[in-house]
Input
Amino acid sequence: MSKKAIVSLLVLSMIAVACGGTDDAAVEEVVEEVAMTTLEEVQARGFLKCGVSTGATGFTEVADDGSYSGFDVDYCYAVAAAVFGDYSKVEFKQLTAAERFTALSAGEIDVLIRNTTWTQSRDTELGNDFGPTTYYDGQQLMGRKSDGLSDSSTLADVDGLRVCTNAGTTTEKNITEGAGLVGATIELVTVEAFSEAIDKFIAGECDIVTTDGSGLVGRRAVNDALNDWAIFPASPISKEPLGPTYRSNDSQWADIVNWTVYATIIADEYGVTRANIDSFDYDAAPEMGRLFGKNDGELQTKMGLSADAYYNVVKQIGNYDEIFSRNLNPLGLYREGSYNDYWNNGGLVYAPPAR
Ligand SMILES: N[C@@H](CCC(=O)N[C@@H](CS)C(=O)NCC(=O)O)C(=O)O
Output
């Protein structure tokens, strides 16, 4: 919850004395509590608190020196760059899937950017709102080729197998429902952090691990197991639109986070990158100029940010394609031919106009 700012108001109240008709002026001090907006709270604190995962290859990684990197981490940095003009003004809080929504509603974080799927129940019952999808994913399963599984295996092939995943996820619900629908009986083992599920899989305590496809591809890549671990079915068993999540009914903050994502997408539409951002011809592209505070008609100050807030995002973190390629291409995840390609190239990545 937002912290409260104590605001003292001096109220001059004229108290009429009933019989004497004498006017007695009394000064009353009324102490009112006015909630700070999320933006004010973040600005007053001096840094953003961003909820990320406990470890998801390519999305949230922590190096030995304690530094953070990844696709989700970069969007945390991007929001900090928008608010402060300095991407480094962010404190990361690692959260398991089961912890994440409680942490958000308790105000332990300002925004959650953690492989989080936008669902109806999370949107309604759990008091969240969702920003633009930054990664269109879908749930898949991973098993060993030495166990007879292959990239063309189906959900029915997991009949009788032990399936591991982490608790508090769409994953556990989808696999339970999906296996039931195809008549497969599974032994579902849920753990707190997904890394434990991978450890059990490696130790042979699970036959299958399941989560978002990107998570499986990432784990397979870092375990150098491309030749042994099969990911299936080819067509995922669910839709997992992943993106930033914030508390419900927080419109200004929602706008700030949403337009941070849109700015990275629009910059890429215009071919504005970290490298050419200062040599780009903004007069020839007024929309880009408005969004970066270079031309007349900028709207960032109306959102409580500086006019160059989104210039700072792209200058410091890059456009959508730079963020995607830098973090996910090394794992073998590419945009081309996927839902993460542009809308005008057959994908779903799209931003509303900046005007
Ligand atoms: N997208 C799903 C699954 C999220 C999830 O927990 N994914 C795993 C695999 S990528 C993860 O982030 N693990 C890291 C952790 O357990 O902290 C959801 O929102 O429920």
